[in-house]
Amino acid sequence: MAGSNPTPYYTPTSKPTQVSSLPLKITNLYSLVAITFLCSAFYFTGLWQSTSNRNNSIIGTSNVHTTLPCFPSKNITSTKTTHKLDFTTHRSVNERDNAVKIYPPCDIKYSEYTPCEDPERSLKFNRNRLIYRERHCPEKNELLKCRIPAPYGYKNPFKWPISRDIAWYANVPHKELTVEKAVQNWIRYEGDKFRFPGGGTMFPNGADAYIDDIGKLINLKDGSIRTAIDTGCGVASWGAYLLSRNMIAMSFAPRDSHEAQVQFALERGVPALIGVIASKRLPYPSRAFDMAHCSRCLIPWGEYDGTYLIEVDRVLRPGGFWILSGPPIRWRRYWKGWARTREDLSAEQNKIEQVAKRLCWKKFVEEDDIAIWQKPYNHMKCTSFRNRAKNPPMCPAQDPDKAWYTKIETCLTPLPEVSSDKEVAGGQLEKWPDRLHAIPPRISRGTVDGVTEEVFQKDSQLWKSRVSYYKSVNNQLDQPGRYRNILDMNAFLGGFAANLVNDTVWVMNIVPVEAKVNTLGVVYERGLIGTYQSWCEAMSTYPRTYDLIHADSVFTLYENRCEMEDIMLELDRILRPEGSVIIRDDVDKLIRLKSIADGLNWDSQIVDHEDGPLEREKLLFAVKTYWTTAATQGSKTS
Fold it and tell me: Which domain of life does the UniProt lineage start with (predicted)?
């Protein structure tokens, strides 16, 4: 045992002298037994003391209930925070723990590196149907083993809701969109800041007014619409302004010629991912969104046998709405400005109308620049219609929630069976905010393996307790504006996010594709958002996306699947300077992770489980220190 020197077992050094006296033999036997007993007692007492001391030194139990000190948001070029956090664990270590591997800074050219959407790598792939814009991750021998630098002059983002309208130029130093979209009110460059007026290509008067127009056509106020998906989101102004109306949108756009559009969205504090609808399913479960939206997103909805609209149908909830503005809607007025012929635009709209009809959608309304279709609540009537219109065919038996590198199919995903044409397929959802704590239909109907109503209720109580404990350890979790963008790397039923819903934050809930049970559909039925992800690969997001990252048993899940250091390097890439990390896992794994965190130049501390020091599961609280590249472009700093 390290740090102890227990009494060795009794071992005779010479053979005893033979004697013929029986009493003497009995006396020697008694002595031998007594000595053996005493030696064993001393040994186990020493072993217990050694183990106890070592555990106390590892965990630092005297500091478990100490609140983590606040740290300043100093916008200076430095390798340390001005007020260094004391996260020292004060533990004894074995010789093999003494050497900490130091991870050097990457070159400045990697400042905006997105490993699985790398523009250079993408050129090797098929340009047909934008396949080259999909995820194409590096091989294991291509993974970077360095820390992605923040650009010189990087500053902590403005607090929400100010960040919705203003961002620092130094954080996303790209002016291309300010020129390209100048007349469309997307973004303006003003001194050392960007300003987001809230406009868009089809809503130059602002997203708020545009959402008001939509609200005149469908009910956006009664809580029946909570989750939305915005395809080709631009800088996500539509999603940004939905938030103030208790709706949350998953916005996505490819990393393309519209430089940094998703990066701007995230800098504003709006949920977004890099993504494209091409040859693979979108990384979301079936029946996830109450509303889907495309505002001049330039997706060819009527082409390829309606493949892309078929995919929207898969992720759209029964009774959900699809909203389309921009070409070809109202083409009779805009065809000249769109530089297209009337015949071309008319044919495009006819194709969309035909695909929607074959999907059994109803044309809900078309007014001014907006057209809205509604998905049926069930497929009871659609089934008889499908007997006449066989294109697209109904999909054969499959998992409609499987959506990680899953090929898009040109078939209609069947809805769960119903007993009457008035019944909502898959179950009726409660309106928001009751939806958050109600039993999700996937659970009440027993379609999530091993997850019962009782499991759901216990999980809800568990995370209420855990989040309360987190806030007692890190008081910044209770400070409005300190955190905005939060990532939960292993969300399960969304309990962590559910207990933060009243704070000024949003949470991206990840259900790892390696998890035993696919629960992302449950997360969406609670009115939360998320995506699938394998943590053996990089996430589809930019560096410096998240203010706080939470990882529950992630490293246990990925044991023998991929390297700890690669997951930690990915966390470092997507975490903002002075961002925080909370990792829950077995103590042995946390000790190894603590060493990696030291090599990443994070301040960190291992603390006890909320149920006390006897639990093997512990928590690692960490803060990424502030550092940027040097003022001279292309140079490195650590």
Answer: Eukaryota
3-state secondary structure 511-568: EECCCCCCCHHHHHHCCCCEEEECCCCCCCCCCCCEEEEEEECHHHHCCCCCCHHHHH
Each residue's pLDDT tens digit, 342-396: 999 999 999 999 999 999 999 999 999 999 999 999 999 887 666 666 678 889 8
447 close to 527: Cβ distance less than 8 angstroms: no
Sheet holding 272-274, edge to edge: 272-274, 248-253, 227-231, 289-295, 316-325, 370-374, 362-367
Half-sphere exposure of 72 (CA within 13 A, CB side): 9
Structure tokens that stand for 88 in this block: 């020292």
Quick one: tokens of 278? Answer: 């091409």
CA dist list (Å): 309 to 225, 292, 372, 413, 487? 20, 10, 13, 12, 29
Q: Which of 611, 496, 609 is nearest to 550 (CA)?
A: 496
557-to-34, 282, 511, 575 alpha-carbon distances in Å: 49, 24, 12, 21
pLDDT tens digits, one per residue of 325-341? 999 999 988 888 888 99
Number of H helices, E strands in the chain: 17, 17
**What does the alpha-carbon distance between residue 576 and residue 554 come to, in Å, rounded to a whole number?**
20
Q: Which of 52, 85, 210, 144 is nearest to 623 (CA)?
A: 85
Residues 257/259/263/267 CA torsion (nearest 10 deg): -150
- Which pLDDT tens digit goes with each residue over 540-584? 999 999 999 999 999 999 999 999 999 999 999 999 999 999 999
3-class DSSP state of 325: strand
Sign of the C-alpha dihedral computed for residues 199, 203, 209 and 211 taken in this order: negative
Pairing of strands 362-367, 370-374: antiparallel
Closest Cα partner for 70 from 608, 618, 578, 581? 578
List CB contacts of 590: < 8 A, sequence separation 6 or more.
583, 606, 618, 619, 620
Pairwise CA distance, residues 531 & 273, whole Å: 9
Q: How many Å apart are CA 529 and CA 506, to the nearest integer?
A: 9
- Report the distance separating Cα 412 and Cα 313, nearest Å: 8
Decide if 345 contacts 331 (C-beta within 8 A).
yes
**Cα 158 to chain center, whole Å?**
21
Give the confidence band of 24 by pLDDT, cuts at 50, 70, 90. Answer: very low
pLDDT reported for residue 198? 84
Residue 62 clears pLDDT 50, i.e. is over it: no
Token pair of 102 as six digits: 């130091």
Q: How many residues does the chain have?
A: 638
Residue 16 or residue 549, greater confidence: 549
Q: Is 550:585 a contact under the CB 8 Å cutoff?
A: no
Residue 6's H or E segment, with its range, is none
Residue with tokens 């006390």: 612
